[in-house]
Structures are given as C-alpha cells and as structure tokens.
Design goal:
Blueprint lengths: L1 E9 L3 H10 L5 E6 L15 E9 H15 L8 E5 L5 E2 L4 E2 L1 H4 L1
Antiparallel strand pairs: 1-3, 1-4, 2-3, 5-6
Helix pairs in contact: 1-2
Length: 105
C-alpha cells in the first residue's frame, strides 16, 4: 500500500525539505509553485512563494515523511503551511509497467 503526502511550504524551506526527505529514503518528490490567497486578509507575499510538495511513499514511510516535514517547518510555520495524506488507488511506472509499491521505489 502507498500514501501520497502533500505539503504546502514556503519556498525558502525547499532545499532543507529535499535534503531531509532524501535522508529518510523518500526519493519520489514533485514540486509545484502554487498561487492562491486562501482568503487571507494580509497583503501579498513578496519575499517568497508557496510550493506544493507531493511525495509518493510506501505506507511504512508515510508517517516518517510527515514527521520530517513538521520537523523542518516547526510549529512556528506560517499559517498557510499544511500537510495532507491521501491513499492513491493505483500507481504505474510507465517506463517499466511496474504497479503499486514497485512503481514508487
């Protein structure tokens, strides 16, 4: 079984997050720049942008991925920092046609 961990973080935390995820063996990372204000009342950000990290991990590694991201962001993270965990129905590595956990390794 696998989990998709999605985290919304500030761009200045990306390098630290990438290193921490590699250290725990989470190698499948997708990074996207996101836009949106989340109905916030304060002015626009000028110092950095928000990024969405998507990490497809084996179920046994998902809690470690979440803990690692929380450790990087800390409880002082910006109000817009979030972590969501989903259960994908299927994963297929197109090049090799591997399915499930084999496709994410």
């Amino acid at each position: 079984m696998m989990k998709l961990v999605t985290a919304i973080i500030s761009s200045h935390k990306l390098d630290e997050a990438r290193e921490a995820l590699l250290d725990i063996g989470a190698t499948g990372l997708t990074v996207s720049r996101i836009l949106g204000d989340g109905f916030e009342r304060h002015g626009p950000r000028t110092d950095d942008c928000l990024l969405k990290l998507e990490i497809l991990a084996a179920e046994r590694l998902a809690d470690t991925v979440v803990a690692s991201i929380i450790g990087i962001l800390g409880t002082e993270a910006a109000d817009d920092a979030r972590i969501l965990v989903f259960e994908p129905e299927q994963a297929v590595r197109i090049r090799t046609l591997e399915i499930g956990d084999e496709a994410i390794g």
